[in-house]
Amino acid sequence: MLVDWQQITEALWQTIVMVAVALFFSMIIGLVLGIVLVVTRKGHLWENKYIFTVLNAIVNIFRSIPFIILMVAVIPFTRLVVGTSIGTAAAIVPMVLFAGPYIARLIENSLLEVDPGVMEAAQSMGATPWQIIIRFLIPEALSSLVLGATIATIGLVGASAMAGAVGGGGLGDLAITFGYQRFDTMVMLITVGILVVMVQGLQSTGNILSKKIRRR
């Protein structure tokens, strides 16, 4: 069967848009949640048992739900936000809800790896909690944060492919609609190949950036 490259290009663009937009909003949510989870834990800058306990539970709940189930469960919320439950825009909503808490955990782990001596030195110099977070904590963890963002981006690529199972568009939708349901092996192989190249490229780029930051 002839391969429709225009269709493949369009599906690839939909996947890139889904991943890019979802990553943008997920990083904002994840960064806020991750920082709050760190600074409100016991013995940290803004220790608050209640805030930490509630946020920790929320993050754990969302992380425990498989993406395909989450995507179906939040259909009413998706319709409320974008006005539809199918298509590229609709797939972005559950992707953000899926990746946000996951990124929060990655950021939390990266920030907790920072040597406590760095914060003690900052406090001894009279730095405020906000200055410690922005000028010391995040810069010290930046290399690890880049790797975390890389992992999250790859996870979103996988989620975008799964979104195709419910009409989310992108390469996953193309693979299921044409590759699987119409038994077009070539389309299936091409979409899988593109996804593999995307993941390899993202991982290599993340590794290079992380190494450059660490050397500084």
From TrEMBL:
Cell membrane listed as a keyword: yes
SUPFAM superfamilies: MetI-like (SSF161098)
Residue stretches spanning the membrane: 12-38, 50-75, 81-104, 145-166, 186-209
GO biological process: D-methionine transmembrane transport
Limits of the ABC transmembrane type-1 domain: 12-204
Keywords per UniProt: Cell membrane, Membrane, Transmembrane, Transmembrane helix, Transport
Main localization, broad class: membrane
InterPro entries (alphabetical): AA_ABC_Transporter_Permease (IPR051322), MetI-like (IPR000515), MetI-like_sf (IPR035906)
GO cellular component: plasma membrane
Membrane topology: Multi-pass membrane protein
Subcellular location(s) of the protein: Cell membrane
UniProt cross-references to NCBIfam families, sorted A to Z: PRK10782.1
UniProt family annotation: Belongs to the binding-protein-dependent transport system permease family. CysTW subfamily.
PANTHER family: ABC TRANSPORTER PERMEASE, TRANSPORTER, PERMEASE PROTEIN, PUTATIVE-RELATED
Official protein name in the record: Methionine import system permease protein MetP
Originating gene: metP_3
